[in-house]
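User: Can you predict the 3D structure for this chain?
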Amino acid sequence: MPAARELAEELLYPLRAPATLTTLALFVIFFSLVLAAGQISVILGVAATLSVGLAILPAIMRFCLQHLDARAEGRDTDALDARHFSWMENLWGVFPLVLLGGLGFLLNRLQDMPAAQIGIGVFGVALLPASMIVLAMTHSPLQSLNPFALARLIVRLRTSYWVAPVIGVLLIGLVLFAGQYSFWLSGVVAMYALLAGFGVLGLLIRPLDIAEETDIPMMETPVQTAIPEAQRLAALNLAYSFMSRGGTDNGIKHIEQSIRDEGADLHAWPWYFERMTRWENPLYALRFGQRAIHELLAANEQVAAAKLILRCRMLDASFRPLKEDLDAAEAALRATNNIEEADAIRR
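Assistant: Here is the predicted structure, written as structure tokens:
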């Protein structure tokens, strides 16, 4: 279970990190414009609401899922950019809006049945956090509704998981409290609550191996040869010096040579990849990821390759394995029950 200090820091993170502050400010600007348009004319207000809703809300939801992933790794969230606004990529990222919309519609239909409303509300608050975590890790709406995947995650987190529903209830209460003063204030607080809530979800799974939180079965692996981390870090630093000066291929070749010097340990590929994701430019990690996936597929390590493909597509939804690896990559994704991702890499 996270310490109280860690929890407080995560709740305050959206108010101090540049990326989340920028997103919050963007929402405030557009939300204010919608309210101003509504005061001028009802038709103008409806048009502004639809336009902003179609453009801003999906981008914000994609950003929240990216925020969850970043905080799970203990790193700062990347800034909101044009990719978040594209309707051609990351369609899975808008699924929370569909889920919340469906839940809201159901609650509205049960207005005459308060007991049923309460039951569904409690059920939603209890399971939505798990659903969002699974969605962020797998990019699969189907998996985010898979009761076995949700149960596996909850069991894995044990009592720590229930921090999420409690924080969720408190944040909802904060939004309702703000609504007593003004609709504008409740909207702004709701945006903060969304960012804070997804950040807390990332905090809860930070101590765990993110790959284990997906619905991919864990593979049995041989005992790894102990390689001093300092040796790998030295190779990584030299590779970065190549890549940062335009020598990406030379940097990758240097790491490949280092892996061969270790005895071609397949576990080294994911290790280097994860360290490279912490660099400022994610393109280096993605280029290396293609090579790592090639090696894992060549060794018939389908589970490890599938995990690495998912990680790469979390960094960039347009990521594809090397052309010669597409067939094997698709087979690996289907074998690990990531059907949607298998279809996506062919688009």
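Residues 115 and 121 are 10 Å apart (CA to CA). Residues 210-226 have pLDDT under 50 and may be disordered.
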